[in-house]
Amino acid sequence: MNKLLLLSASLHQDVGLKRLNQVRQLLNENSDLSLYEIFQKMDNDSQNRFKNYSRESVSSATSSAEKILTTSISNNIKIITTMINYPIVYAKGNISLLNAKTKVGIVGTRKPFDYIADLTMLVAEEISSLNIPIVSGLATGSDTAAHRGGLAEKGSTIAVLPSGILSIYPYENMKLADMIAERGLLLSLFPPDFTIQKYSAVLRNSLLADISNVLILSQSTLTGGSCHAVNRFIKYKKPLYSFPFYETHYELNKKIANTTSFPENQKYLFL
User: Fold this and answer.
1) Could you tell me the maximum CA-CA distance found in the chain, to the nearest angstrom?
2) Which among 96, 116, 136, 194 could disulfide-bond with 190, CB atoms 3.0 to 4.6 Å apart, if both were Cys?
3) Is residue 184 a contact partner of residue 161, using CB atoms and an 8 Å limit?
4) What residues have CB less than 8 Å from 112, skipping those under 6 apart?
5) Residue 241, Cβ neighbours under 10 Å: how many?
6) H-helix or E-strand containing 198?
7) Residue ranges of domains in the chain
């Protein structure tokens, strides 16, 4: 796989995840093609047509990709090109954690009640003690509690970022991110210096859900960011858990408790 060509494609306008997966497939099938030739090949397919490319735009994207490669190498950031549905993933830390048979995701509000934060940390610590990596999104609140619990007792945790690995968000979790890079794994779909955007948090939650085999919801409303991960688990019928929570405005926990809300033959356990 020509990593530079794939990275260049990811930086080109109008190339999202769907088209980037197509580029990766074409690169695997035609390793001698240039990026411009790949775009031409895609453009000739009526289902993939897009006109916003030129030799100049490809050259510009390639130049940017070269800079990103240099930055990544100098900061010990690996670029993974083999992950299903995600052609480019930036990683720093123990990449072998991705090979763990079971990985447990924990998501929830940035402002949990104190006892929920304590419970989140305790559950993460117990799971991590079984050599099961904890996956979360490095946000404040529930995510922070999950990561800290995962790191306790020599455990491990994977932080999936809504920003680049060199542009940690939120800033107050910078030290925690450093700890995770040393003892766990930082993952991002975005170049190292990328700053958080609204859409990047949604993509972060999709990756978080996809690499997790099990998901635990600590506390969330129906409009919280955790909904993206929860809905992805519902879609793919993966095991979904929730802490019991009965406050009226934390309806996502209630939704998980109400098994009639979900497809038949899908198990949802209420912790």
Assistant:
1) 59
2) 194
3) no
4) 120, 141, 142, 145, 218, 219
5) 19
6) helix 198-211
7) 3-74, 95-270
Query: In this predicted structure, which of 117-126, 144-153, 212-221 has the lowest mean pLDDT?
Result: 212-221
CA-wise closest residue to 186 among 197, 174, 198: 174
pLDDT at 52 over 50: yes
Q: What is the DSSP letter of 169?
A: S
13 vs 53: CA distance, rounded Å: 8
What does the pLDDT look like over 58-77, one tens digit per residue?
Answer: 999 999 999 999 999 999 99
Q: How far is CA 83 from the centre of its chain?
A: 11
b vs e for 31-61, b when ≥16 Cβ sit within 10 Å of the residue's Cβ?
eebebbebbebbeeeeeeeeeebeeebbeeb
- Average pLDDT, integer, range 115-124: 94
Q: Which residue do the tokens 């390793």 mark? A: 31
* Residue-level pLDDT at 13: 83
CA distance 91 to 76: 9
Instruction: Count CA within 13 A, CB hemisphere, residue 149.
Output: 27
Contact (CB, 8 A) for 162 and 200: yes
Topology classification of domain 95-270: Rossmann fold (3.40.50)
Residues 122, 204: Cα–Cα separation, whole Å: 24
Dihedral, 14, 20, 24, 29 alpha carbons, nearest 10:
-50
